[in-house]
Amino acid sequence: MLRAFLRTSRPAAAPPPAGDEADVLLDAPDDRLAPALVAAAGGDHGPAAALLAATRDGAEWDRRDRCATRLAAFARARSEWFERWHAAAPDDPGALLVGARLAVDRCWDSPARAELLRQVAPAVTAATRAGGPDPVPWRVALDAARGARAGHAVFEGLWEQAVRRSPHHYGCHVAALEYLAAASPHAHHECLDFAETAAQDAPEDALLRALPLHAAFVCLTRTGPDGSAREPARGVDRSRLHAAADRAIALSAAHPPADPWPAELRNLLAYVLVRLERPREAAEQLRLTGPYVTSFPWDRDADDPLGRFLQVRGNLRAALADTGPAAGSRHPRTGRGGRFCPGGH
User: Which of 66, 113, 176, 239 is the most exposed place for a label (fewest CB within 10 A)?
Assistant: First the structure.
């Protein structure tokens, strides 16, 4: 029932070492989200509504954001269950949130994105009005404002509303970071400053501690004027990118291995470590993530994120096998080890 979210594949190269995962899962849901998706596939919106109500009651804003995004993605492929939910409970904050996320996502890849996003503004406004203390609808509003090329004053007004509700919500900070990056081709120092300050002020175990890693990703995947050419941002202090990776490594270590919750963090961390030519540490993050592959960030480089992940993983294994245990390692900031060719990174 979860074919829209789960795919398995085996690497085409040699079999993986003993004890390693032969199968991988793309965007696998965790134990709380999976039953809601299974029920939705059968036309029942009740578990999805209950899940979002529980995250709201428990102020689990990062989890609520992730669940709403995944439910919206499922509704984009199979909308019947969501349409029933919205018809049965049009004022439900969860239904309004998923509807707003769905409306924004449907517009995102269109050449007419800015105009289409202005047209779906009522759905986003309805979600924010029903949200109360919930910052997640404001994250959707921030994304919509960025896509619609809203001015600074509009974006700052939305940002104020978001941080008033939750000063440490990861999704809202990612939306703001992406807005800063899009505002100027030379905004990378500002992005790093913003991310480092937010991470420093966040609680020790908060997902927001990983924001500098996302800023490093933005710096390392700079988009050219035509929207296609990618090159690392010039003039960025590489030690700050390495420090962001080091901070994320510590955050990853605080979570158990093979856990779907930190999977996106570990996939992003592996991606950044590859770009920073730290292959042994990247391979360790892929080991810790177990079978859980996330579309982001691998979809940045390819239409097939799972295939891209398997390609990079295979390249890492081959490079480390060639260099041996000592040659492939390097100190995060000063050491130099065997050079790794990321195959398109």
Answer: 239
Helix, strand, or coil (residue 26): strand
Task: Compute the C-alpha angle 29/100/118, nearest 5°.
Answer: 140
SS (H, E, C) 161-207: HHHHHCCCCHHHHHHHHHHHHHHCCCCHHHHHHHHHHHHHHCCCCCH
Classify strands 292-293 and 230-231 as parallel, antiparallel or unpaired.
Answer: unpaired
How many helices (H) and strands (E) are present in the chain, helices listed first?
17, 4
- 176 and 237 housed in the same domain: no
pTM over 0.85: yes
State the Cα–Cα distance between residues 178 and 52, nearest whole angstrom: 26
Measured from the Cβ of residue 11, the count of other Cβ atoms closer than 10 Å reads 15
Contact 104, 116 (CB under 8 A): no
Of 210, 180, 204, which Cα lies nearest the Cα of 194?
180
Determine whether 105 is exposed, middle or buried from the number of CB atoms within 10 Å of its CB (0-12, 13-18, 19+). Answer: middle
Out of 118, 149, 183, pick the residue that ends a domain.
183
Q: Report helix angle 93-108 to 136-147, nearest 10.
A: 20
In a domain, 310, yes or no: yes
Q: pLDDT-based confidence at 184, cuts 50/70/90? A: confident
291 neighbors 309 (Cβ within 8 angstroms) = no
Q: Are 198 and 162 in contact (CB under 8 A)?
A: no
Q: Of the candidates 105, 174, 99, which has an alpha carbon nearest to the alpha carbon of residue 137?
A: 99
Range of the domain at 81: 25-33+40-45+62-183
Verify that 291 and 334 share a domain, yes or no. Answer: yes
Do 178 and 216 lie in one domain? The reply is no
Final residue of a domain: which of 166, 183, 200? 183
DSSP label of 25:
E
Judged against a pLDDT cut of 70, whether residue 20 lies above it is answered with: no
